[in-house]
Amino acid sequence: MLPEATTTTMRLFLAEFATSLPPDTHAVLVLDGAGWHGARALAVPANLTLVHLPPYSPELNPVERVWLYLRERFLSLRVFVDYRAIVDACCAAWNRLVAEPGRPRSLCDQPWIRNVSS
After folding, report:
1. Which residues have CB under 8 Å from 92's CB, separation 6+?
2. Residue pLDDT, tens place only, 33-85
3. Closest by Cα among 105, 104, 108 to 94
4. Which of 38, 47, 44, 59 is nearest to 14 (CA)?
5. Residue 44 CB neighbours (<10 A)
6. Residues 50 and 29 sit within 8 Å (Cβ to Cβ)
7. pTM of the predicted structure, to 2 decimals
8. Cβ atoms within 10 Å of 106's Cβ, excluding its own
9. Cβ distance 62 to 107 under 8 Å?
10. What is the average pLDDT score of the chain?
11. Handedness of CA 100, 94, 6, 13 (dihedral sign)
């Protein structure tokens, strides 16, 4: 988990993600309009392609449902003592999400995705 969302941390994430891919694999990442997603200073590894969504299109960004799920079930209506408590709560919430087989897919499933990936 990175402490901030900036061009620098996005660059670190992309570099780490790119090295985690099997050889000869190319990945496409769909990104919203966050400033650090499209900054000119962002270095994109050769085995990644970034596709930017049009503005104001949450229906095209199914991960928004993941964030909603995490907030509603694990992170809302709480007071955190300090930064470390926030990070711990976020990590625990994420771990609970990925421990449920099929939950991420069920949250992100959209008819247009099935049409595109079939």
Report:
1. 74
2. 777 777 677 889 999 998 888 888 877 888 888 989 999 999 999 999 999 99
3. 104
4. 44
5. 14
6. yes
7. 0.67
8. 11
9. yes
10. 86
11. negative
